[in-house]
Amino acid sequence: MILLSQLNIYSQKFDSSDLYFEEAKKDIAEQNFTKAAKMSWRGLQISKNDLDLKVLLGKANLQLGKYDTARYVLKQVYDKRRKDIDVLQYLVTIEQTTKRYSDAICFVNELLEITPYSRGWHLRKIEIYKEMGNFEEAERALKRIYQIYPNDTEIESRYNYIMIGDGNDALKNKNYDDANVIYKTIIDNNPSNKDAYLGLIRNEILKGNPEVALQYTNRSLIELPSDRQLIEKKVGLLEQLGRHEEAIVFIQTDPNVSKDKFPELHSKTLPYLMQQSASFNEYNDTYEINKKLAEMNGNSESTAYVIKNALGKGYDVDAEYFLKKNIKRSPNNKKLLVQLKELYRPIKDKERFEKEVIELHEKFPNDTDITSDYNLVIYNRAKDLVINKQYGEALEIFNELVNFPDFTEESESQIFGIYLLQERYDEATDQIDKLIGLDPDNPDYLEKKSTLYQQMELFDDALEITRSLEQNYPLSQRYPTLYVSQIEAYATYLMREQRYRAVLPLVEDGLTRENNNKRLLDIAINASSAIPDYQKGINYGKSALTFYPNNKNFKLKLANLYSQNKQYDEAKGVLDSLRTVYVYDRNVKNALAEVLFYRARNQEEEGLVEEALVNYDSAVALNPADRGSLMRMVNLHIIQKPNDESLEFINNKLEKTPEDNFLLYKKGVVFELLQQYDSAYYYQKFREIDNPYEKQQWGLTLEVLRAAQLKNQLAATYLQASSDSVAFSTSIASLGYSHKYDEKNTFGANVNYAARRSGVGVQGGVNYSRIFSPTLYANAGVLFGNIFFPKFILYGDAYKGIGNGYEVQAGIRFSRLQNDINFITLNVGGTKTWEDILLTSKLSVLRDDQFTYFNLMAQTKINVNARKDYVTLIVSGGSAPFDTQLPEGETALLDFSNILIGAGYGYNISPKTAIIVNGTWINFKSPVTDSTSLFYLNQYNLSVTIVTKF
Predict the structure, then answer these.
(1) Residue 673: left if φ>0, alpha if ψ -120 to 50, beta else—which one?
(2) Are 96 and 128 in contact (CB under 8 A)?
(3) What is the pTM of this model?
C-alpha cells in the first residue's frame, strides 16, 4: 500500500501550475510537507516565476528542516514582494533557527515597519537579541514596546523588573529623587507592585522622612492589605513615630491582621505596644472623647470634630464611617458628600471616588469644583478606553472635553494620540498643528510633530523640525538625542531600501552629534560594505573600536572588511586578538575560518595550490561545519593532485568523520577517475541531493557508473558515403567487440565489410589496450584486409594525463596497400577536459616511398544533459584525409588539398546502450577521367553506430 501510494504521488501530473498550487496548498494544510515540496516544484517547472508556488515550496522545505533550500526560494519571493508578511515570517524563523541573528533582526524590523504595533514581533525581536547575547539592545527594545503596550501584563512585568533594578541602583548611589521618580512611575503603571512600595518606603526612611514613609505604607496596604512585610513595616513606623495607640488599634481592629494570620504580632508586639502607651488614658485623648460622643448621641460638633480630625490624620475607617452615618441623616448635604468624595481621592479607591463624583455631578451640575472632578473622571475613563482600543467612544468623550479650558489641551493631545494609533496620519497632522496653535511655544508639540513625520517616513521633514528645536534650545540634550535616534531610523530605512550611498552622509551628520553612537557606527560599516567601499568601512570599523575597543561585533566586522579588501593578514590579526579573549567563542572561530577560506580561494585563483590547500585545511580545523572550505579543498586536490594522492587525502579525512557523505561521494569521484567503476558506484551513492529532479537525474548517472563495470562491449556501425563521382561512393559495415580482462587489460576484435560494384572487401583484426598508471595508458592493434582495404595495418597509441584536465597523445601507424605501397603515419595531439566539454586536436604526418603528407584536425565533444548525451563538432584539413575509415581514402586523396567539416550526436538509450550518428562533408580536388584532369568534388559521409555493454 505504501509503494502504491508513493507511485500515485509520483504519477500525479497536471497541465497547469494552478493545479499544482492547489495540490501543494492542500498538502501543506494536511502537513504532508514532502509531497507539498514535490507538487510545488513540479508546478514551477511549468511556471518558473510563480511566486505563490515558491512560497509553498519554501514553507514546505522550512517544515522539513531544509533551511538553505527554503531560504534560497523564499528570498526570490522577497526580492519581488518586499512587504509579504508570510514570507518575512518564514525568513525570520529560518534565520533565527540557523543562528543568523543579524538577518533575523533585519526581517523582524521589516515586519515592524509593516505592522509597527505587533506585540508578537516586538517580543520576538527581544528574544532574538537575547539569543545573540545583545542584552543592551534587548533592554532598549523592551522599554520601547512598553511605551506602546503599557497595559500588557507580560511586558509590564518585564519592564517593572528592569525599572526596579534601576531604582535600586539609584538608591544605592544615594540619588533619592531619581529613585522616587522611578518607583512612583512603576506604581502609577502597576499600583500593586510591592517592590516599588518597599523601595519608596526605604528611600523616605533614608531621607529621614518616616512620616512620609508611613503614608506610602498606608497606600501600599490599600493594594496589598494582607502582605506581612508591609503590615510589619507599618507597625514599626508607627512605633518609631511614637504613635503606639494607633498601632494597637491597627493590630486589634484591622480584619487583615487577624490572630491566626499574625500570631506573633498579637502575642509579642501588641503587649509591647500597650506597655509603651500605658502612661496615656484613652479618655484624656480629645479625639477619642469626641468619637465616643459622636457615636453615642450624634453630637453635631463632636461629629464635625471627628470627621475633620479623621480626614486630617488619615483615619480613613473612622472618617468613612461617620460620613456615611451622617449622610444617611441628610442625603443632600453637599459638604458631607464632598468630604466623602475627597476621602476616596487620596486612598486611590478609584471606583468609589468616581461613583461619588458622578452622583455629586447629577445633584450639583453647576458646581465648578464638582464639574472639574467629573471632567477628570470621564477624562480618565476615556484614557482607559484608548488602552482597550475603543477609540471611537474615547474620541467622543475627548471631543466634548475640549470645550472645557482646563481639559482643552490635554484632550486635543489625546485625540492626536488616537489618530496616531489608528495611523490616520493626515488627521494626526491637522491635530498636531491645532495643538501647536494652542501653545506655539510648547516644544513638546513640535517634538510630537517631528515624531509623527518620522512614523510617516517623512524623515527629512522630521529632521528639519528637530534641528530647529536644537537651535532654539541649545542647552537641552533631549533634542540632539532625538535627532540622532531619527538619523538611526532614517539610516535603517535607507539600508532596507538598499540606498547605501545615501546612508553614509546621513550617518556622518548623526556622528557629528554623537560620535560614539554604536548603532550609527554599525550602520556606517554595513553601508560601506554594501556599496562596496571596503576601505571606508575599515576606517569606520577602526573609529568604532576607538570608542569600544573590546567590542566583539565591531572586531568581527572589521576583520570581514579586511578580508573583503583582500587584506587577509590584517583580518587574521584582528581575529587572533579576539581569540586571546574569546578562546572558545564559536563566532570568532567561524570568522577566522571564513578569512582563511577567502585567502585560500584567492590563492587558488592565483595558482598557489599548496598555499590554498593549507588555508582551506586550517579553516576546516577551526570550523568543522564550514562545508565550503572542505568542498573547495577536496575539489582542488582532485583537480591538481594525482588521483592516488587525492584518494589517500580523502581517506585521511574520513578517519576523523567516517560518516561524511560529501567525502564519501568525492572518494567515488576519484575512483571513477581511476576507472575503478565498482568502487565509484558504491561511494557516489552517498551524494546528498535535495532537489527531486536533480536526484532523479543523478540516479541515471549512477546507472552509467554501474554500466561502466560491465566487461563486454559490442559496437555495430553502418556508414554510407556518397560523392559527386561514382568512384568515391561506397558503404561500410563494421562490428567491434572488446572485453575488459581486469582493471588494466582490455582485448578486442574488429571486422569491416565494404561492398562496391567492383567487388567485396573485408578487413579484420585484433587490438589490445593497457593502463600502466592512473595517468598513462596505451593501445595497439593489427588489421588485415583485401581489395579496398590495405593488406595490413599495424598501429599503436599512448596517452598521458598531465593534470588540470590536460592529456597528450602520440602514436604510430604502418599500412601496406594492395599495390604494395607502404605508409607510415605519426600522430601527436592533446586534449583538454572541462566539466561537460572535451576539446581534442591532432596532427598527422604521413610518409610513403616518395612524399610526405599531413592532416590537422580539431574536434569538440559537448555533454548536453545529465544523461551525458553529447554533440560533436569536427573540422580538419591538409594534404591527407582525416577519415581513414574510407578504404579508398589513402590511395585517392593524397597530395590534394581537402577540407572536412562534420557533426554528430550521441544519444544514451540507456546506461548500457547508446546510438551515435555522425555526418561529414569533404571537399577536395581529384582526378576523375585522367591524372591530368582535376576537379573539385564533394563527398558526404553518414554513419550510424549502436554501442551496448553486457
Answers:
(1) alpha
(2) yes
(3) 0.46
